[in-house]
């Protein structure tokens, strides 16, 4: 006689279904994100500024590798692979990129272990620090390697010419999605070696695919401007603002929020505890 209860299903359903039990790995990841996010949001101004500045400098090393390989090969794919060294530096040096803060601190704010004001402070200071550090490295590169000037102008002009349209917005959304997914993958393990894998893969995808990332593209545009590009800083500012919006939509909307939907019970518990 057949039973209406499957080995893992609900009584009387007649269909084998998995039990409605929390996924332990998701809960552990959520707890780690809340704890780290709370710490990031509580950092003093000086720590936020230095961390953002160093993050821009680290990405600048990737830009140097990108320009050298791009000049030698003419291939954006190979140059993107070289750029990944900048993301390795981010991981090993424990610095931060603006778009890396689309998952961890957002999770803490959703769990009410931080405020929107604190999140805004973190985003603004980190972004400004990234840009300042990136401009400094771009200036150093252009002074040290005058032979890279034409390559820098070509690379920076690509982003200046994207304009405000559906294509550039989609490129920005993809960039935010890629970096936030990288952040999520890195927080799924404590192994430093394993965390380097998504840094290499997604760093290469970001630069090799010429996605519209506010910090990376800004540094390339800075290098182009210093080398005498045909566009100006107002063009850079417009590209920055548009890419930031797309990055936030991709990182927060398509990655962070959708993953938080998977642990509603933990969000409710943390909110009660915070309250």
Please name the defining characteristics of this protein.
12 helices, disordered N terminus
Please write out the topology.
Elements: H1 24-41, H2 45-73, H3 76-83, H4 85-93, H5 104-110, H6 116-144, H7 149-160, H8 166-186, H9 192-208, H10 214-226, H11 233-260, H12 264-274
Structural class of the secondary structure composition?
A: mainly alpha
Strand content: under 5%
How many helices? The count is 12
User: Radius of gyration from the CA trace?
Assistant: 21 Å
Tally of strands: 0
Task: Give unreliable regions as ranges.
Answer: 1-19
Distance between the termini: 53 Å
Structural shape: elongated
**Helix proportion range:** over 70%
Order of helices and strands: HHHHHHHHHHHH
Explain what the structure shows.
The chain has 275 residues and is mainly alpha-helical. It is built from twelve helices and no strands. Helix 2 packs antiparallel against helix 3. The radius of gyration is 21 Å and the shape is elongated.
Compose a concise summary of this entry:
It contains 12 helices and no strands. It has 275 residues and is an all-alpha fold.
């Amino acid at each position: 006689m057949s039973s209406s209860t499957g080995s893992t299903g609900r009584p009387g359903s007649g269909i084998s279904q998995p039990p409605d039990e929390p996924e332990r790995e998701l809960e552990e990841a959520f707890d780690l994100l809340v704890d780290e996010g709370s710490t990031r949001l509580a950092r003093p101004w000086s720590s936020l500024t230095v961390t953002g500045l160093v993050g821009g400098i680290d990405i600048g090393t990737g830009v140097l590798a990108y320009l050298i390989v791009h000049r030698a090969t003419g291939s954006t794919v190979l140059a993107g692979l070289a750029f990944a060294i900048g993301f390795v530096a981010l991981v090993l040096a424990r610095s931060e990129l603006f778009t890396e803060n689309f998952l961890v601190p957002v999770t803490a704010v959703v769990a009410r272990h931080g405020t929107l004001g604190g999140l805004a402070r973190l985003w603004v200071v980190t972004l400004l620090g990234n840009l300042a550090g990136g401009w400094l490295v771009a200036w150093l590169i252009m002074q040290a390697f005058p032979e890279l000037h034409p390559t820098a102008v070509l690379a920076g002009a690509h982003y200046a010419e994207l304009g405000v349209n559906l294509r550039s917005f989609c490129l920005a959304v993809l960039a935010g999605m890629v970096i936030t997914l990288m952040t999520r993958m890195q927080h799924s393990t404590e192994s430093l070696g394993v965390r380097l894998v998504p840094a290499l893969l997604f760093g290469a995808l970001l630069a090799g695919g010429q996605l519209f990332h506010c910090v990376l593209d800004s540094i390339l545009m800075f290098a182009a401007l210093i080398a005498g590009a045909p566009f100006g800083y107002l063009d850079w500012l417009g590209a920055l603002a548009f890419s930031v919006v797309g990055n936030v939509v991709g990182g927060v909307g398509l990655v962070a929020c959708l993953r938080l939907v998977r642990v509603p019970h933990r969000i409710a518990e943390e909110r009660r505890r915070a309250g």
